[in-house]
User: What shape does this take?
Amino acid sequence: MAKKVDITEKLSFDGNPSLVIKGKELEVHADAATALKVMDTLSDDPGPKQVVAMYKLLFPDESRKAIDKMHLNFQDFKTVVKGAITLITGEDGEEPGEAATHTTT
Assistant: This one.
């Protein structure tokens, strides 16, 4: 018989995270397929087409409708998209783990 390993306990089924803008929670798709598609689209300075493509991947319809009602300028819109990307990839420039402690001499 072939070996079987149950990894269910190692997986997280917490659901999608949310960004909060002006007190409104906006769900962000955090599944691996979405994250990989977004990371594949990323560049140092994405243009409008790339930002819109990532926006459509990252946010479900309800969240997009709420964002559209905010009438954000393009820079703020990009900030929202970048915030969602940081949320799902965890790449915010900070390493997870313990806080650094100062040493004394």
Residues 93-102 have pLDDT under 50 and may be disordered. The beta strands are 18-21, 24-27.
